[in-house]
Amino acid sequence: MKNLFPFILCFFLFTGHLQANDGYKLWLDYQPIERSELHQTVSELFSGIFFFGKNPSHEAIKKELELASQGFLKQAPKYSADRFQTTQLWIGTRQELSQFLGLEHQAKIKALGEEGYWRGSIIHEGKSYYALIGNSPVSTLYASFDFLKSIQSNTFDKDTEKTDYPKIKLRMLNHWDNLDRTVERGYAGFSIWDWHRLPGYVDPRYIDYARANASLGINAVSLTNVNANAWILREDFVEKVKVLADLFRPYGIKVFLTARFSAPIEMGNLETADPLDEQVRSFWKERVDMIYEAIPDFGGFLVKANSEGQPGPHEYNRDHAEGANMLADALAPHGGIVIWRAFVYSHEIDEDRHKQANLEFEPLDGKFRDNVIVQVKNGAIDFQPREPFHPLFGAVKETNLGMEFQITQEYLGQATQLVYLGTMWEEILMDKTYRPKPSSTVARVIDGSDTEQNLTLMAGVSNIGTDRNWTGHLFGQANWYAFGQLAWDPDRSAAEISEEWIKLTFGQKPEIQAKIKEIMLASHEAAVNYMTPLGLHHLMGRSHHYGPGPWVEGGRADWTSLYYHRADSLGIGFDRTETGSGALNQYANEISKTWSDPKKTPEKFLLWFHHLPWDYQMQSGNTLWEEIGLHYDKGVKTAREMRSNWRELEKLVDSERFSHVDQLLGVQIEEAEWWRNSSLLYFQTFAKRPFPDSIEQPEGDLEFYKQQRFPFAPGIRPNW
Ligand code: BDP
C-alpha cells in the first residue's frame, strides 16, 4: 500500500477541479495555475513580497497570500527583508508608498476614496515592481483579493493597471440568527455563531467567513435576527460579540446588533420603552456606552419595530422617526448608526399591505437624524420571486434609504433549488424610478448619486449556516457572491458576475463556463414561471413559504394567498389601480399613469396591478388563462433543461459537486411539476376552461395537492 502513495499524490495534484470538493473553500479555492506563462509570472511575484508598514490588515493579506501561494504554486511565498533587492511585489497604503508615486499618481489614487485601491507596475530606478496599494489598510486588502482573483480567473496582466472603489458605503450581511442557533429562514444548518462556546472557543470558521466577505468588499454584518432577543445587549453577550468584532476588524468588517425596542422593559426593569422618556433614553445611552467600551468601532443597531408583532414606538404614540432618533442620539457620540427597517405591516390594518410602508414613512421624510438609514426591502410585499421595485425608492428626498435584498431563498426554493438571484437584483437596480430625477433608477437612488444622502447601504439577508458548503445548495454561494459584487458596484452585470463566479468555483474550461452560465441565467425566470408568473405573488404555503398553497384561506387579516391572487369566476389578479387599492399611485406619475392601463403594464407585473378576465387578450394573442398555463409549463421545461445541461458536465466536474447539484435539480424538477400541476388545477376551478393543448396536461388530484407536504421545513419562525 505504502508505495502507492506517490501515485495517489500525483493523481490529486493533477486532477485540479476534479478532486472531491465539498465546497467549503467557496470562491477562494486557489487551484494550481495551469498556464505556464502565468505560473512563471506569479512565481516571480510571490518570491519577493515586501510589506510597507505594519498593521492587522497586512496580517490578513499575508494569510491570504500564503493560502493562495500554496494553492497556485504548491509552495510558500517568500518575503523580502528590504524593499528593493529581492523584492517583486510591494504591498502597502498610498501614504506608505508615497515616495514611489508621482504627485499625479498619488492624486489619482487618493481620488478613489478611503476604500479605493490601485494595482499595477511601478518602475523605480530601472526595476519594475508590482504594487498593491490602497488608501487604507483595508483597501490594500481589497486590492490583494482582487489581485488573487485575477490570477485565479486567468486574467492577470502585470502591465495593465486596475483601480476600483465601492459605490455604496455600507455593504452588509444581515443574519437572521437566533441566540439558540436556529436561523429564521435559514436552510443551511444552524447559525455559525456558537454563542455557547464564545468567548472562550473561537471557531476557525469565523476567519474563513471574514475572508469570504472581505474578498467581496462586504464591510458590515449584523449578527442577530431582526426578530430580536434583548439578551444580546447583556454584558456577557457583548463579551462574545467583542471576540467576533476583534477577529473581523482586520478584514474591514464592522459588527452591528439588532436592538429589541422593548429592551428597557425586559432588561432595564423600566415600565416603559417610550422613546421620549428620560429613563428610557438613559437606558440606551448606558447600554451603548458599555458596548463601545468593549467594541470601539461598533457599527450600531438594526431595528425591526412595529412590524409582525415586534415592539416599537407606536405603542407610545410615537412615530418611527422618534423611535429611531432616540437610538441614533445614543449612538451618535460614538459614530454609530441606526438602520431602521421599513418592512412594516400589521395584522389589523384594513389596507393593501403594499401601501403601508409609504403611508408610514413618506410623512416622516426629513425627520430622521443623519445617522439613521431606513432599510427598505426591494419590493413592497415580501421578497417575492418577482416584485416591482418598492415605491419608497425615489419617494423621499431627505431620508437615507438603504436596500434590503434577501440572499436566503425564503420564497425561491430555499436551499433545495438552484435559482441565481443576480439577474433578479440587477433587474430591480436598473428599474427606473423617475424620481428624484427623470433619469433616476433604483441604483442611482441607493448609491446616493441622485439624492443628497450621506449614508448609503445595501444589505442582504444571509444564506449562511453551519453546512459544510456554507449555503446548503452549492449554487447558494453564487448568490452570496453576486450580492457582494452588486453591493460594491450596483451597475455590474449579473451575467458577468456569474461568469466570474463560475471561473473561481469550477475553473476555466469553456464548456463548463457556457453550460453553467446558461443554467444560472435561466434559473430565476424558470422559478418565477413555475411559482408565480405574470405578477402573481405570495401563493406559497403558509408559514413555510416553500411549496405552493394558492388555496390557503384565512381572510384578509391573515394575508394568505386568496388575499393576493383574488381569483374568482370572472378573472384573477390584484387591482392596485384607482379602481382598486390605489397602491400604484405611490409610484411616480410616469409609472402610475402608464401602468393603470393593463395594455401598457409590463406583462411580468400584470396581475400585480390588475384584476383581469380569464379571456383577457395578451400580447401574444393568447388569452390570460392560456398564458398562465404556458408560463407554468415553461417553468417546468426550463427546470428540466437545467438538469440536462448540468448532466453534460458529468465528466468535467468532480463527482461530489456533480452529484450534489444533480440530485437537487432532480428535486427541483419535481417541485416545479408540483407547483404547476397544483396551481393550474386550482385556478381551473375558477376559470372553468380547458388547459391549452400545447402544454403537458396537469396530472393529479387537487385535494391531494392541498395536503401541505412541508410542515417541518427548516427556518420557520419559532413562534408560528
Ligand atoms: C418575512 C419572513 C419573516 C421575517 C420578515 C422580516 O417570512 O420570517 O421576520 O420577513 O423581514 O419575509 O422581518
UniProtKB/TrEMBL annotation:
One of its GO terms (cellular component) is extracellular region. Coiled coil: none annotated. Homodimer. Residues 152-470 form the Glycosyl hydrolase family 67 catalytic domain. PANTHER family: ALPHA-GLUCURONIDASE A. It catalyses: Hydrolysis of (1->2)-alpha-D-(4-O-methyl)glucuronosyl links in the main chain of hardwood xylans. Residues 26-147 form the Alpha glucuronidase N-terminal domain. InterPro entries: A-glucoronidase_C_sf (IPR037054), GH (IPR017853), Glyco_hydro_67_aGlcAse (IPR011395), Glyco_hydro_67_aGlcAse_N (IPR005154), Glyco_hydro_67_C (IPR011099), Glyco_hydro_67_cat (IPR011100), Hex-like_dom2 (IPR029018). It is an enzyme of class 3 (hydrolase). Residues 471-693 form the Glycosyl hydrolase family 67 C-terminal domain. Pfam families: Glyco_hydro_67C, Glyco_hydro_67M, Glyco_hydro_67N. It comes from the Bacteria. GO terms for molecular function: alpha-glucuronidase activity; xylan alpha-1,2-glucuronosidase activity. Belongs to the glycosyl hydrolase 67 family. The keyword Hydrolase applies. This is Xylan alpha-1,2-glucuronidase. GO terms for biological process: xylan catabolic process. Gene3D superfamilies: Alpha-glucuronidase, C-terminal domain (3.90.1330.10), Chitobiase/beta-hexosaminidase domain 2-like (3.30.379.10), Glycosidases (3.20.20.80). The active site is at residues 308, 382, 410. Keywords: Carbohydrate metabolism, Glycosidase, Hydrolase, Polysaccharide degradation, Xylan degradation.
